[in-house]
Task: structure prediction
Amino acid sequence: MSGVDSVSERDARQVSEAARESEWGRPSFGKELFLGRFRLDLIHPHPRPTDEDVRRGEDFLDRLGAFLRAEVDPLEIERQSKIPDRVIKGLAHLGAFGMMIPREYGGLGLSHLYYARALSMVCQAHSSLNAMLSAHQSIGVPQPLALAGTDEQKRRYLPRCAKGEISAFLLTEPDVGSDPARMRATAVPTDDGYVLNGTKLWTTNGVVASLLVVMAAVPKSPGHPGGITAFVVEADSPGVEVLHRNQFMGLRGIENGVTRFTDVHIPAENVVGAEGRGLKIALTTLNTGRLSIPAACSGAVSWALKQAREWGSERIQWGHPVGQHEAVAEKVAYIAGMSFALESVVRMSSLMADEDRNDIRIEAALAKLYCTEHGWQVVDDLVQIRGGRGYETAESLAARGERPVGAEQALRDMRINRIFEGSTEIMRLLIAREAVDAHLSVAGDIIDPAKPLADKAKTALKASGFYAKWLPTLAVGAGNAPRSYSDFGALATHLRFVERSARKLARSTFWGMSRWQGGLEKRQCFLGRLVDIGAELFAMSATVCRAQMLLDDRSVDGVPSVELADLFCRGARRRVDRLFHELWANDDAVNYAAAQRVLDGRYVFTEREVVDLAGDLPLINTE
Result:
């Protein structure tokens, strides 16, 4: 692709904008929340799985749990930096590689809910297992084909994936991450297909996969609209070469590498969707595919709660269990609240995906953002609670006769989740774009410097009508009425807070647009805080609705669930209040100016005694 290094900001933005789903054909709780409308009816009564989903899902979880306990040794995976073949074969025999593949193609056809619960369980055995299975099914060959594949492609590839042939998804390149306009990999049309050339980086499962979904740019030519396109590629095709298996801070068993394609022939029938649809397919795949990471985080946090509870009760310091000391108790309480909240967010999002009556692109993104950020904090707190034993490896603990609790491994493994499938910073921008979509739809031309004055005038007239109706709805709502949401008993006060905060969030977004107009997109810290507020409100809503469902069902978990929901919501409300305050009282401008001075070299004097042994190799190798 020529000129990739000179792609302008505007061109890059247009590529990403063209790939996003612009229509909202179904209701969205998250979209309404950012518009100041608390649509409780979209999530309450809490969605429930069908009896058939429960029967087949519970049966699989029972078999999966028994297998993990009998066959997986996390210390072995850490030692060898590899998942043993017997484990992979055993998972294939269970059908774990086909959890989300329809039964007509040999898969288990599990619901999103039970897929998420299975990944939560697998993550507790070893995070590399979760990475392998989720990369295979959530973004590998099965999901893109489910969304855009032909019947023939599904018949040809899905049975292979269901039986245990591993697949991988190849998008990222050495110098291309979240900016696909600069993609270098090309697929040049020929008489009977395409010729693929390029290099892909961080190819999860790519080292061992037999089937690949590869994104490459097709040059525009007669009969070819061109653009970023998705292809199914056989990994043993001539010209496909795995150059390197990457090693990471965590996920010691992950098969992630660098793959080079040199004049690889791809049959025309291996195009997924159509030319130029690759990036849209990738983003659509991630709408539900992103839920695999929150599921893993939820599983890790549940595991962390068990370890914190046991250690906090048994370890004695100054005559008391450490969990009775207030400083540690605060961390234990935070972990407990987050365990219930993260599980609630994952279950709500997964069940909404199963119902398929709502557009959950915002909810899935919020779930990914929220669960990864707080999941990281939870495992960091667990390491702190366990002290020296939190920092010591599980193998070392076992060697001296103590229980091999891998807290330090959990910390290492959890860290990547804030980067995988959209970093925290990118997720905030992605969600913020969706959050302001309604505003851009009615007022976008006003803030677009490329639009002529006549268009701006027409848009201003249309926008004035929209805001004249919308702004008054943000003044007063159910959150101001003391008896609102009374069916939720003690938790009603938290729903009233969510409703009030949703309207305040919408007002804040409007004020930000009024203040900065087209410059709002540069106010990434401001937008990030708006998104974080929305994430807290979504988590509170999911948590309260789940607790109330359990209470209404007279479950033995009902009353304890209400206690945990209340605990979580109290902390969430404090975080929301702080974020609202920091929207307008912050050091964003000062920090940005200081960072530019750092990058310009003004403060290199502070580095004079730095001993940097990394050498002179390039920071980014594009060869």
